[in-house]
Amino acid sequence: MKICLNYFISSIWQKKYKKAKSLNQIGSCYTETIASEWQRIKYEKRQSLYHCGKLSRGLNYYQEVLGGEIKNVQLADDVEMFKGHEGKCLHAKLHLGNSIIHFSDPFGRVEKGDNVKITIEFDSEEEIRKVYQSLVADGQAILELQDTFWGALHANVIDKYGIGWLLNYQK
Q1: Which residues, at least 6 apart from 128, have a Cβ–Cβ distance to it below 8 Å?
Q2: Exposed (0-12), middle (13-18) or buried (19+): which is 53, by Cβ within 10 Å?
Q3: 2-38 pLDDT, tens digit each
Q4: Rg (Cα) of the chain, in Å, rounded?
Q5: What sign for the dihedral angle of Cα 165, 168, 74, 90?
Q6: With helix as H, strand as E and coil as C, how does the chain read?
Q7: How many Å apart are CA 122 and CA 127, to the nearest integer?
Q8: Which Gene3D superfamilies does the annotation name (predicted)?
Q9: Contact 155, 130 (CB under 8 A)
Q10: Highest mean pLDDT among 112-121, 127-136, 156-165
């Protein structure tokens, strides 16, 4: 099992999840990007955060302070799903040796607790199901455990303490 902090679900994605009830219903325009990202989650350390405002300023600041290399900058400009959010960054990475910090501009109002999530990458379906059941017993499933378009079993849960969890088992 691998654990990492992850920005992955912004307010806009949570709204789409609630409406769609299934990741397969969200749409195909982001499918390839997300699928390729999940295939590449093999990092020793991964931390993520939102930068409210212009991401480029924050990203450049952290690169100056920490060093590293900026990679995989994806803008909302040409993505139909994000029409009206031109100039915002969907995703960017700052590589620091074996660590990666993921950045994103927020696409809605950032609520306390939804700007950082903890992601667990599981090694088995049995393991993810056990943890999912334990977390939702006293918490809330934002997205129920289900098969996804990127070939994983995935869930988005808030535990009884208000901590957000993304659970993923890549089949």
Answers
A1: 120, 122, 145, 153, 155, 167, 168, 169
A2: exposed
A3: 444 444 433 334 444 444 444 443 333 233 333 333 3
A4: 16
A5: negative
A6: CEEEEECCCCHHHHHHHHHHCCHHHCCCCCHHHHHHHHHCCCCCEEEEEECCCCHHHHHHHHHHHHCCEEEEEEECCCCHHHCCCCCCEEEEEEEECCEEEEEECCCCCCCCCCCCEEEEECCCHHHHHHHHHHHHHHCEEEEEEEECCCCEEEEEEECCCCCEEEEEEEC
A7: 7
A8: 2,3-Dihydroxybiphenyl 1,2-Dioxygenase, domain 1
A9: no
A10: 127-136
Query: Tens digit of pLDDT for each residue in 53-96?
Result: 456 667 777 777 668 888 888 888 877 878 888 888 877 777 87
**pTM of the shown model:** 0.46
Task: Report the alpha-carbon distance of residue 117 to residue 158 in Å, rounded.
Answer: 9
Is the pLDDT score of 103 beyond 60? yes
Q: Which domains does the chain show, CATH number per domain?
A: 2-170 (3.10.180.10)
End-to-end CA distance of the chain: 14
Integer CA distances (angstroms), 55 to 69, 103, 104, in order: 15, 8, 7
